[in-house]
Design goal:
The protein is globular. It is of the alpha/beta class and 449 residues long. It is built from 14 helices and eleven strands. Strands 1-3-2-4-6-5-10-11-9-7-8 form an eleven-stranded mixed sheet, sandwiched between helices. The protein has a single domain (12-261, 368-447), classed as Amidase signature (AS) enzymes (Alpha-Beta Complex), CATH 3.90.1300.10.
Amino acid sequence: MLAEPVPAEPSAVALRAALEEGRIGVRELVETCLARIALDEPRIRAWAHLDRDYALAQADALDADRRAGRPCGPLFGLPAGVKDIVDTVDLPTEHGSPVFLGRRPLRDAWLVSRLRAAGAVILGKTVTTEFAAFHPGPTRNPHDPERTPGGSSSGSAAAVAAGMVPLAIGSQTNGSVIRPAAFCGVIGYKPTHGLIPRTGMLEQSPTLDQVGVFARDLEDAGLLAETLVGFDPNDPATRPRAAPRLARAAREGLPVSPRLAILLGPAADRAEPAMLEAMGELADAVGEAAVRTELSEPFADAIAVHRTIWTAELAFRFGRLIDERGELVSERFRELVREGERVDAVAYQRALAARERMRAEFVAFMHEIDAIVTPAAPGEAPRGLESTGDPSFCTTWTLLGAPALTLPLLSGPTGLPMGLQVVAEPGDDERLFRVGAWLQRTLAEENNP
């Protein structure tokens, strides 16, 4: 069913204004976050690494900068969690695996340097699944600890959902931002491929890997993401470009109704009955904005094409590690690597070519609409912690490098959140945020006529 959006009070944007004006101190905010973590972390287990003294030292330095009249960056004083596949010089980065236990990077990842320059407080490292793949970590869903929070950005989604931190960084190679955001009931944003540099992050698949962000408010997600946009010659997927003004797009929304393709896509047969019912209610709620259309036949192969590219590149990256340290790696991850080693060069090149054909067809398809609205996951977070859930509703859009948002606008049969996914054309991230804001407003009006 449709769920009424719950406003995040105070938002990260509001907190930042209060911090810059001195109405609250950075240390005060960080202490509040640490107190919340101390209360809920034994139940949720969202954090891989926390250092209270280190977090407070960053806060004190920022408070001193403000008192001295030094410039305040766009994320001034805002605590952020960073997924434990992203290098941090002052905290371990272990990739969710005993293979890298105690690993201390020599330098920050590109995006961590950007966070620091923008004035954010690196509160700690959030739990990831093993090597950001399928084998779960210890994190539990804040809404029901007997259910998965999703993955692989499990800790980032759960920490934001539990109010431990207002902002967090994740990554997505299949469904690792959009799906956990859906299961945990927060905003998840996966930008256009190459918008945020990946230098200093664990590499799974350079063709597919993307940085993502989590927040409890759409404008907050836009502020964090637009601050991280940039060009890094060490990441060939990036290029010099102006950063999209995502926070402004979230505030302003759309002046007119958009054209929305409401569809299920290649994973249609995996949708649960509650999700199918909610999508029907959504189509009724948006009325004439809904456009009757479907993806063309070539997209039916998207999930298979994605898997060929992903496993082949995974095998190239991790094959030697499995040979040398395989006893420390889960059986499921070893099987994925071995699957990738069986992909021959011709099959890999054919998959890359199929991806390019689909990307061209997708651009043509998007000329007729403003955005696609589709499930973020089959339904509510599944019970049990042995799996992080089905990523298939995210796979096609990750393959295409398209920007996507999770909006927590649906609820399932037990009252747990179900995520709505909004997808736009690659490079059209601002429009994505405007459509997201329009949907939030429209569904809120539907629930409160």
